[in-house]
Amino acid sequence: MKHRKRTDQMHPVIFATSIFALIALWQVAAILTADPSIMPSPLAVLQIFQAEALSGELWVHLIATLTRVLIAFSLAMIAGCLIGIALGLSHKANLWFGPWIVVFQNIPALVVIVLCYLWIGLNETAAILAVAVNKTAMVAVTLREGVQTLDRKIEDMAQNFKLSRRAWVRHILLPQLTPFIAASTRNGLAIIWKIVLVVEFLGRSNGVGFQIHLYFQLFETGYVLAYAFSFITIMLFIEYAIVRSWERKAVRWRHA
User: Fold this and answer.
1) What is the architecture, at CATH level 2, of domain 40-255?
2) Tell me: the pLDDT tens digits for 32-68?
């Protein structure tokens, strides 16, 4: 136990060192390129970030993108978990609707985005729905696999103790599905925010994707990197400060 605790305490140091090494590699690439219009240095991008933050422009677009990500992510997780659990618990449902999941999982995100814009219009509803649809199938597949790997011994114990359906879901089903939900959360956030950028790139008037589109047209690489890394920083915070912390607490019962 002591050794495990010591290893956990090293994680922030390793994380900081890893990020520093990545920045150093970026700096080397900027020096070798010797062209700020193609590969600006980390300091130059940081200065752009500070200027955009002080002007307030950065926060307007960050909040717009983050709002879309959180709404689309919530819709995809709720729908995907319900569908995945239902398919995992019902063999017949999986036989009938499993192919649907495969179809939706393999439709390119760009096609879904374009169709939503064509059918619904260039509005916020279409943008969020396009993102949520793209991720729902992936969550459903992960949760379906999780249900199909449930420990049958624990299932038998639940039946012997005649647990109610609500108690079974709370104490048997959800704890065993936690790793799969955590995996869907982690992958979902990583994928959804990238799809949101494409949605904003194609048909929104604000957001990080809109700004990247704008500065791409102006060939301002530094601004593109500043807006991209600003949101990556938020995603890193969510991953390490929220998702991983919740995951450790949720699976603590496995090591008891």
Assistant:
1) Orthogonal Bundle (1.10)
2) 988 888 899 999 999 999 999 999 899 999 999 999 9
Lookup: tokens for 133: 């649809």
Q: Would you give the distance in Å from CA 2 to the centre of its chain? A: 33
Instruction: Render pLDDT for 143-161 as a digit per residue (tens, 0 to 9).
Output: 998 888 876 666 666 666 6
Residue among 211, 215, 209, 219 at smallest CA distance from 35? 219
